[in-house]
Amino acid sequence: MKKTVTFGMLAIALVTGSVLAQTMLPKLPVKATYRVGFAQTESNNPWRLAQTKSMQDEAKKLGYQLVYTDAAGSTAKQVADVRSMIAQKVDAIFLSPREDKPLAPVVAEARKAGIPVILVDRNIDPALSKAGTDYVTFIGSDFIKEGQRVADWLVKNANGKMNIIELEGTTGASPANDRRKGFDDVIAKNPKFKIVASQTGDFARDKGRQVAETLLQAHPEANVIYAHNDEMAIGAVSAIKAAGKVPGKDILVLSIDGGKEAVQMVVDGTINYVVECNPRFGPQAFATLKDYAAGKKLPAKIINADRDYTPESAKAGLAGAY
């Protein structure tokens, strides 16, 4: 059973049917204020900047001290950042793992040090680390469903455009893994559609542009680009124009995130469809922390309820985009 709760601009679908025992996790005493770590993966795009601001704003509102680190796109640095927070003996850690495997050991180190960890936005490989045992819970979107929603829209609105280039996110990151799986699974059930090329653009605008340019040259038959995030989609729009084609018409462009720049491009017709992945985590993240300290039982996952932006809805939704 699901229950939807709204925290400011972020709607949360609580998965109420899978409450955790939480018997192996460190206790968090109820206090008036906390010193909390937030290990961010990078700050090179609007989504991450919006997420960080939301976390900082909520900490300030509550009077908590936020120990913030930026891994600058380096998994090794993020591991070191979390270890530094453990050494500083913060009360708890919010972690957005850059990759789903290398961060598992430091999550275990935090637990052994008596520091509870809450995962935000990105998850850790469940074979290596489990909610309720190694970390408290995961807060974020259903990345598989995001990919499915993009593919479902394409199947219904392709108008004969069926040769797809997929620009993948960072290799090993849970959003990239799941957004690929969700999309690819739907496409596999629709044999008229074909993924002609798939390559990582590392969730970055310029790399997405470069990869799109290369793949469009190698596959001139491509008439759809599915990007795992807005930054790569915006880069792909530039690549399409450089190829002498019209983005949104000659080549459909599909994306996930819902930043204001990308939503405006849906309004303008250069991007065709965007599934939102709301970055405003602050209110829900800190509410979850307080619930945990109060001894409330939490689900393994707290899933964001995200909207989408179509040519019909983008103009009305633009004001609410991050």
TrEMBL record:
Q: Which UniProt keywords apply?
A: Signal
Q: Does this entry carry the keyword Transcription?
A: no
- The superkingdom of the source organism is Bacteria
Sorted alphabetically, which Gene3D superfamilies does this protein's record hold?
3.40.50.2300
The residues forming the signal peptide are: 1-21
Q: Name one GO molecular function term.
A: carbohydrate binding
Q: Could you confirm whether the keyword Phosphoprotein appears in this record?
A: no
Q: Where in the cell is it found?
A: Cell envelope
Q: Where is the Periplasmic binding protein domain?
A: 36-297
CDD domains xref list: PBP1_galactofuranose_YtfQ-like
Query: Per the record, GO CC terms?
Result: cell envelope
One of the Pfam families matching this protein, by short name: Peripla_BP_4
Family that this chain belongs to:
Belongs to the bacterial solute-binding protein 2 family.
Name assigned to this protein: Ribose ABC transporter, periplasmic ribose-binding protein RbsB
The organism of origin for this protein: Deinococcus marmoris
Q: What is the lineage of its organism?
A: Bacteria, Thermotogati, Deinococcota, Deinococci, Deinococcales
